[in-house]
Design a protein that fits this description.
35% of the residues lie in helices and 23% in strands. It is an alpha/beta fold. The chain has a single domain, classed as 3-Layer(aba) Sandwich (Rossmann fold), CATH 3.40.50.150.
């Protein structure tokens, strides 16, 4: 199963077209720039809780191998590298990988970027595996999760985020955000969103236990923030079952 095709060519093409201005905080990926600090806040808490690292440590991932799947142009890979990780980023779009490599070189960061099918790249032994806003874009969700599990080292930590399939996400993430130009048209397909219960089942099938999910919510006062409200989006840890 892990070698099954998970890439949707039309999805890779869509995100590849956005590659050129991926790093522009006011460009087509502006929402990702707003979302990234929220993801990193959750990730830092999860890293410290999992490995018992000091929350004040600058490089809690020192000596650890990190894999970011569906990395785009490297928006998450670069801060993970700055946290000390030896980072590999994988994406389905060649255009994204090209931009990611150039940006990392300009920032003086050594990140191993690869383009291809996650299950066919032979990746394994990663202490931290992340896949943020990716599972809703893949062709075979069980195969994708199985491939992520295969890449994770024993005792490792996985972190996933995904839009939740609710009436609120259809209204705000698909119809609202795309019509208002906050997110490029065609980015979201509501039927492909995954609920927390569905993700728990998918992870369980791959031998992983899901942690307590946290919502990523939006309000005029706080903007995007971690919340108990999972109506729009959620982020969660997973690890091998004991």
């Amino acid at each position: 199963m892990a070698n099954a095709t998970t890439i949707k060519p039309e999805e890779a093409a869509h995100f590849g077209r956005l590659a050129a201005d991926w790093w522009d905080p006011k460009g087509s990926s502006a929402m990702l720039h707003r979302l990234n600090p929220v993801r990193l806040g959750f990730l830092r808490e999860a890293i410290d809780a999992h490995w018992g690292t000091d929350s004040r440590a600058i490089r809690p991932l020192a000596g650890m191998r990190v894999l970011d799947v569906g990395c785009g142009a490297g928006l998450l890979c670069e801060p993970l590298a700055r946290l000390g990780g030896t980072v590999t980023g994988v994406d389905a779009a060649e255009e994204n990988i090209a931009v990611a490599k150039a940006h990392a070189a300009g920032a003086g960061l050594a990140i191993d970027y690869r383009c291809g099918e996650i299950g066919a790249l032979g990746l394994s032994g990663h202490d931290l595996v992340t896949a943020m806003e990716v599972i809703e874009h893949v062709a075979d969700k069980p195969a994708f999760i199985a491939a992520l599990a295969k890449a994770l080292s024993p005792g490792g930590l996985m972190v996933l985020s995904c839009p939740n399939r609710t009436p609120q996400s259809r209204l705000l993430l698909v119809e609202g955000a795309e019509r208002l130009g906050m997110v490029p048209r065609g980015t979201h397909h509501w039927d492909d969103f995954v609920t927390p219960d569905e993700l728990r089942e998918l992870l369980g099938q791959a031998g992983l236990a899901m942690g307590q999910p946290r919502g990523i919510a939006w309000s005029p006062a706080k903007g995007l923030h971690l919340s108990g409200d999972m109506a729009l989006n959620f982020i969660v840890t997973a690890r091998a079952k004991a």
